[in-house]
Amino acid sequence: MNGSGLARRDKWARFVPAGYSGLLAAVIAGPLLGPGYLLLRDAVSTPRSYLTDSALGLGDAAPRAVPQDAMLATLSPIVDGGLIVKTILLVALWAAGYGAAVLAKELLRVSTGPQLVAVTVALWNPYVAERLLQGHWSLLTGYAALPWTALAAYRIRIGGHGADAVARGGAVGSWGALAGCFAAAGLTPTGALLAGSSAVVLVGRRNVLGALVLLSAASGPWLAAAALSGAGTVPSDPTGIAAFAARAEPALGTLGALAGLGGIWNADSVPDSRTTPLALIASALLLALVAVGIRSTAGKINSAPSAGDTERAAVRVRRGLLVLAACAVVLPALGATSWGMSGMEWLVAHVSGAGLLRDTQKYVALAMPAYALCAAAGCRAVAARFAAKESASSPMPGTTLTATVFIALLVLPLFDLAWGVGGALRPVHYPVGWQRVADRIDGRGDIAVLPGGMFRKFPYSGKVAVLDPAPRMLPRDVLQTGELPVRGRTVAGEGVRAREVESTLLHGDSAQRLGELGVGWVLVERTTPGPLGESKTTLAQLDSVYADPDLALYRVPGATDHVKESQSTHRMIAYAAHLLWAAVLVGGLLVAAISRPRPTR
After folding, report:
1. Hey, is 446 helix, strand or coil?
2. Engineering a disulfide at 25: which of 93, 114, 302, 376 sits with its beta carbon 3.0 to 4.6 angstroms away?
3. Is the Cβ–Cβ distance between 46 and 79 less than 8 Å?
4. Beta partners for 523?
């Protein structure tokens, strides 16, 4: 094949991993391509949401959904909120797979076949399945940012050194890419911690300070909200440690489940295949494919003068990813032991903000980039061993076949990840009454909701309990206790006023008492089970505003807003923090795109 033919083939080969990643993302989230809204466990998307204090993270509860709620509240008046959420989820899945391929290409110099193996490892695994079933769509943006964060850290390390095209592109674009990764991952606080910990380990000592400054700017919304609302200074309920500890899977134990990228605390958020011996087979195959490539991934640091800075930086970044992977598996496993849980309980009870660490299985995401690299390196090593000969101008004979076998071994044992994890991930359609209720809320006061609790089982939402959509559907703050029923126990939340309001309703207290607590509206969701107590006594004292078979809305006479004197100042600070986050996201991605290095011929 002549030079021009090779150039054309290489040009098209660059698009294969991107296309394959898009195909897998579509196969996984296929049901969401249709009309409707994502409503599954913790995932709540709505046609329109509102920029309330809770959306800014200034409510009673800890700011766990900041800045995602404010972003949706800002964009949903322009673009349907359900479409925004589905788009972000699909793009995140695509970016996770394609990022793994680009990382493998740049750090290992592998051909297309091993890159496709890296895509498969990044997308077709129990972590993605379990977090989809749990409804953690925004956490998956942090997951997707991990390979791109590693790539940006590597390019920052080589900076202006080296002779290749990436080095000649300079450090500006790499810093912009890192900023964009931090902001995209920072859609949730956990995502920011994932990307930030990766960067600190990989970026090199002289660049750590710059990375921390960018991370702080990208984390501004939830840091500001935690400080302003006071929720960040309240210790979390230690009961949550045992409730959210990583869970053992059949024949694997806790360590084996985590090493296989599984082990989520909620046994109901697990694909059916992971409750059978297939869990052992899938984990064994994944770890075997990873083990084949560990040695090649770790590599040797060449100290010879002829070795370039680029080569040494690649080895250091690969080794850093391996260390992150080991920590991401071992530490959550230790956290699930009796003494590990005791230590974590002390931590969350005495250290503000430590509640972010209670769901330790979330951090298994940090193992994904290393697993993808090892599987890609293993594919290349196996192909090299069995190839009859190697050509300098084309991929090794047998690489395509080896990659196909690797992909099949990864996909088949977790077959039910396809099509919305066996159809569980499907769009729903809200009754029209929700919009009518939202239109009628035009006065003072926050909103209390009945039945008590935060989770619902509507006829249109499926068999599993889902988060109440009211806080995102309605234009005033909806009071929620933050209490979570987990594994037969209740983990206390931070909503002190919400608990008092709920108790007032369930005990049938006076409407005057509701008004004193700053409640102006009461919404009754009629088609979901839950405690109602003696609330009829209180509702009889309220003004009926709207009623249909699904919903009933009441106005509390004489209600006043429950507003602190400093609330206006707090909102301005929160707005500024969100604007800074948006600037880091958009500006970082623009700088990265403009400064993208172009390879020379």
Report:
1. strand
2. 93
3. no
4. 449, 553
Sign of CA dihedral 477, 479, 485, 486: positive
- CA dist 77 and 274 (Å) reads 40
* Of 46, 39, 141, the residue nearest 91 (C-alpha): 141
CB distance 222 to 578 below 8 Å: no
Helices (H), 159-267: 165-168, 172-185, 189-202, 208-218, 220-229, 239-243, 253-259
Please give the pLDDT value at position 392.
47
Mean pLDDT of 337-355: 88
Average pLDDT estimate for 161-187? 78
Q: Is 523 helix (H, G, I), strand (E, B) or coil?
A: strand
Tell me how crowded residue 3 is: count the other CB atoms within 10 A of its CB: 8
Per-residue model confidence as pLDDT tens digits over 81-112:
999 999 999 999 999 999 999 999 999 999 99
- Give the three-class secondary structure for 221: helix
Q: Which of 555, 554, 547, 556 is nearest to 431 (CA)?
A: 547
Give the helix ranges, DSSP H, for 50-124.
Answer: 68-75, 81-108, 112-123
The pLDDT-based confidence of 478 (bands split at 50, 70, 90) is: very high
pLDDT, one tens digit per residue, over 114-137 is: 999 999 999 999 999 999 999 999
d(CA 379, CA 400): 9
Helix boundaries (H) for 431-566: 433-440, 470-473, 496-506, 511-516, 535-539
What mean pLDDT value characterizes the chain?
91
| The token pair that represents 201 in the structure block | 């380990």
Which two structure tokens, joined as six digits, stand for 25? 């993302």
HEC sequence for 339-380: HHHHHHHHHHHHCCCHHHHCCHHHHHHHHHHHHHHHHHHHHH
Dihedral sign computed on CA atoms, order 448, 451, 455, 458: negative
- Looking at residue 231, its amino acid is A
Q: Note whether 46 and 438 are within 8 A (CB).
A: no
Domain ranges of the chain: 3-423+580-594, 430-555
